[in-house]
Write a structure and sequence with these properties.
Layout (H helix, E strand, L loop, with lengths): L1 E7 L3 H12 L4 E5 L11 E2 L14 H4 L16 H14 L4 E3 L5 E4 L5 E4 L1 E3 L15 E7 L7 H10 L3 E7 L5 H4 L7 H8 L2 H12 L7 E5 L8 H9 L4 E4 L6 H16 L3 E4 L3 E7 L2 E7 L7 E8 L10 E2 L4 E2 L7 E2 L22 E2 L6 E4 L2 E8 L9 H4 L2 H17 L2
Parallel strand pairs: 1-2, 1-15, 2-12, 8-9, 8-10, 10-11, 15-21
Antiparallel strand pairs: 3-7, 4-7, 5-6, 13-14, 14-15, 16-17, 18-19, 20-21
Helix pairs in contact: 1-9, 1-11, 3-11
The structure holds flavin-adenine dinucleotide.
The site of flavin-adenine dinucleotide has 36 residues, from helix 1, strand 2, strand 3 and helix 11.
Length: 414
């Protein structure tokens, strides 16, 4: 099988890169093992919330000038703001509706009801400019009876600290009874499938209409619109007061929808997406990858001009931690990590974890190094890259999308 570019990993980074390349006439295939971080999405995409020295960031475009030299953003040179704009446009082109601005972080509501800064938020959710937006509001927090992945009590406690008055309630639809028989079935995606049915959604709206009188805002878990955002629009349009959806514990309904929309756009542009297959090894000659091989295709090789490693971090097995080293299992790429396992982590769970900054070593063009030699046609994008602590710095989605666009443009421009 022969392509212009073969991408290993079909999460946010791999799909962003593939869409950009296909749009510019390059024939791409994506091979992807399975679910990506999008399936666990908070509903927001972070660009830069904090510098590595702990300085809080309000304006990522201005703050990026102070980014440390090992950070993936440092490799983009002066193109950070340009690629942030292109990433937002790519979402719009894929019919993924988001709100937000690279020059000004807004606040998102977490599954615990706390507020955190972020860059782009799915239009399902309500971006806030400040905690004071909530002061004095009377809020009704409604759950589906028996749904355990939305903790109304945590949300109410947090909201009350922001000066709101909350009441907790639940709805009980006969259509959800079948799921409720087994608690393991009562998951966000299954509920969303039930509520995708127009009649069931109408029954819910009727139930809510009877409860919301006297409240300023009604809060619900984000269990609407698995395959399209239409149920979200319908729900919000039907009630007289603002509806605030709150992200649930994984799986993330809007995240899965976005993954599907990105994949659909890639395929509509002519890209080939092979889900459920894993790339396991490669042939090299003169510091160039000749071909790669996958589990499902055995001896049948994938041949391409260029190869892009978008296999994610530890979570997706893009990086694997061994007893005293961290490895990248497909190509055996060099990985930047500090020797001595004790220095990898802090015993206090919430402190900065050093292992989060480890990742595949590249040059400024994001070409991968193996045994310190640059591989001419092998690039790394997204969370497989090192140099940042995506949790503490709040830059996960930004790194995935901006590095993917940067590498794609370098290939397009030769
Ligand atoms: C659980 C979780 C939740 C997150 N939530 C957020 C969030 O809400 N907002 C935010 O800004 N950031 C979040 N992040 C940070 C996240 O890293 C980025 O936002 C981004 O989505 C990562 O995209 P990626 O494509 O680099 O990697 P991934 O999404 O991990 O995708 C990598 C893909 O590669 C595939 N793969 C791996 N190895 C192979 C192989 N050998 N062959 C074929 N396929 C392979 C995997 O199956 C996976 O589908 C989260 C991270 C995690 C781990």
């Amino acid at each position: 099988m022969k392509f212009d570019t073969l991408i290993i990993g079909g999460g946010l980074a791999g799909l962003t890169c593939g869409i950009r390349l296909q749009k510019n006439g390059m024939k791409c295939a994506i091979v992807s093992t399975g679910q990506s971080a999008l399936h666990f999405s908070s509903g927001s995409f972070d660009l830069l919330n904090e510098l590595s020295d702990g300085t809080k960031v309000d304006n990522p475009v201005a703050a990026v000038e102070k980014i440390n030299m090992n950070h993936p953003y440092a490799k983009l040179g002066s193109k950070f703001a340009y690629y942030a704009g292109e990433a937002k446009q790519l979402f719009a082109d894929c019919a993924i509706e988001v709100n937000g601005d690279a020059a000004h972080n807004h606040l998102r509501i977490t599954p615990m009801g706390t507020l955190k800064p972020t860059w782009l938020t799915f239009s399902d959710f309500t971006p806030l400019s400040s905690a004071s937006d909530m002061v004095g509001k009377k809020i009704l927090i409604v759950n589906m009876a028996g749904f355990l992945d939305f903790n109304t009590k945590f949300v109410a406690d947090s909201f009350e600290k922001y000066g709101t008055e909350c009441r907790i309630s639940s709805v009980n639809l006969p259509e959800l009874e079948r799921l409720r028989i087994s608690p393991t079935e009562m998951r966000s995606t299954n509920i969303a499938r039930v509520l995708d049915n127009e009649k069931t959604l109408e029954a819910l709206i009727k139930e809510l209409t009877g409860q919301i009188s006297g409240f300023d805002i009604v809060v619900l878990p984000a269990v609407f619109g698995l395959s399209s955002a239409e149920p979200v629009r319908k729900l919000k349009g039907a009630l007289d007061i603002p509806v605030w959806l709150i992200p649930t514990m994984p799986p993330s309904v809007p995240g899965i929808r976005a993954q599907q929309q990105l994949r659909r756009s890639f395929e509509e542009l002519g890209g080939v997406y092979m889900l459920g297959d894993t790339v396991v090894k490669a042939d090299f000659k003169d510091n160039k990858v000749q071909a790669v091989y996958s589990v499902n295709h055995g001896d049948i090789s994938f041949v391409a001009e260029n190869f892009i490693l978008a296999s994610g971090s530890y979570f997706s097995n893009g990086l694997v931690a061994q007893q005293d080293s961290v490895v990248e299992p497909v190509f055996g790429s060099d990985v930047d990590f500090t020797p001595g396992r004790d220095g990898w982590y802090d015993k206090s769970f919430f402190n900065k974890q050093n292992y989060m900054t480890f990742g595949v070593a590249t040059n400024d063009k994001l070409q991968v190094k193996i045994k310190s030699e640059i591989q001419q046609n092998l690039y790394a994008v997204g969370s497989v890259l090192g140099g940042s602590n995506t949790i503490h710095e709040g830059c996960g989605a930004g790194i995935s999308m901006l590095t993917a666009l940067y590498v794609a443009d370098n290939l397009i421009n030769g």
